[in-house]
Each structure stands twice: as C-alpha cells, then as structure tokens.
Write a structure and sequence with these properties.
Elements (H helix, E strand, L loop, with lengths): L8 E2 L2 E2 H11 L1 H18 L8 E9 L2 E4 L1 H10 L5 E12 L5 E11 L6 E12 L2 E11 L3
Length: 145
C-alpha cells in the first residue's frame, strides 16, 4: 500500500481522504465481487474461506458468537451437508466510515439433494487492508416463515 501524505490537498480533500473517497466510489463493485467469490467458495470448498478471515474476525451464526479465523471456519465446516448450491436474491452495500464496505446478502441455498431451498440473510463488514479486504464482521441467519 502506498504511503499517503495528509499535508497536500486536492479539491479540499487530503490525499488520505481522496484515497478513501476513491474506495467508497467503488464499494458496490467490491461487494459484488466479494459476494460472488464467497458463495462460489462456500458451495465448492468451505475450507478455502479461511483466507477471508483474520484472528480479529467476528461471526454470529444463528446466534452463536465466534471470534477468530479458525473457530469461524470450523463452524462452517461443521455444517451437516456435503453439497450446496447458492442463489443470491439481492446484495446491498454501503461504504463504511473506516473505508470498508458493509454488505447485506439475501439468498437461498439447497443442500445435498434437498428439494426445498433455505432462505438466508448474511451481513459482512469488509475491512480494507493493503489494497484488498478481509471479513471483520459476519452475521448469518436462516429466514423462516
């Protein structure tokens, strides 16, 4: 990541603020690319999701609180299915004040050979680091009813 100076300005914005503004202008593309990658990986090989989390990551999965890369991935691997197919219904994104991206996903997935799809809502906060993003917060709930 390049060093930014907060001394010079352009259009009234410091260099650092300009860099954050540039990221914020692309937040929807970041969210869409992340969501595609996350659910493609979730459905093909959940163990590979480990690289998206850090030891500081937090997850709430159906009310269960998890902290850290390893406990999160262990939870995902403990889910009682071998095959999954996901369909994203909607993806909403907002830039966060920290330069990250808040992403809410509404979707459905089928597991193994089940006929009935399960609807879910999942929210991610993607934190910026070194030109890319990692999952700092993740909440997941099945939608019943």
């Amino acid at each position: 990541k390049r060093q930014v100076s907060t001394q010079s300005t352009w259009g009234g914005l410091t260099d650092q603020r300009w860099e954050i503004e540039a990221i914020m202008a692309q937040f929807e593309q970041v969210a869409q690319a992340f969501v595609k990658h996350y659910y493609d990986t979730f459905c093909s090989n959940r163990a590979n999701l480990v690289s998206l989390y850090k030891d500081e990551s937090l997850m709430t999965y159906e009310g269960t609180q998890l902290r850290g890369r390893q406990p999160i991935v262990e939870k995902l691997l403990s889910l009682k299915f071998t095959k999954a197919a996901c369909r994203i219904i909607s993806c909403d994104a907002q830039p966060s004040q920290s330069g990250g991206v808040l992403t809410m996903v509404l979707g459905e997935f089928k597991t193994d050979d089940e006929e009935q799809a399960l609807k879910f809502c999942q929210t991610f906060h993607l934190a910026p680091e070194g030109g890319s993003f990692w999952v700092s917060n993740d909440t997941f709930r099945l939608c019943y009813g």
